[in-house]
């Protein structure tokens, strides 16, 4: 019974932050919610072990990142449909932001590296562990992503989106 209460307390305190993290990874609020739900199901199954040995939030974020990467590895590209769905507006804090639009154009791995480095403030070694890549790959992906962002920065400043 104590474990259930601790798990519920964890959810109450960290659910919003996990959803924001999922959105930064996926760029889509619906995919973010699915990602959080899948990761929390896995956390619940391992709750006792995770609670004793490590930080539950770190476990969930690592699980979310790996699930996201596995999903796009399976798809390899977006699914194109002949009939797009009806327009649905979901209030998302970053939606429509010019900076978010630039980030969304980055390849998924580069975006994941930047999110983990600057939003989660992980080290290169930690990012490499989460993504299952070498530290050198983390650094090269970050370098390339930042280069693309720098290329778009003058246009954002010129349009008045950044001061």
From TrEMBL:
A Pfam family annotated for this UniProt entry? Sigma70_r2
Please name the source species.
Spongiactinospora rosea
A single GO molecular-function term is:
sigma factor activity
Any one of the GO BP annotations: DNA-templated transcription initiation
Annotated CDD domains: Sigma70_r4 (cd06171)
Keywords linked to the UniProt accession:
DNA-binding, Sigma factor, Transcription, Transcription regulation
Asked if the record carries the keyword Transcription, the reply is: yes
Query: Does DNA-binding count among this protein's keywords?
Result: yes
List, for all copies, the residue spans of the domain called RNA polymerase sigma-70 region. Answer: 15-77, 102-150
> Under what name is this protein listed?
SigE family RNA polymerase sigma factor
Which family, according to UniProt? Belongs to the sigma-70 factor family. ECF subfamily.
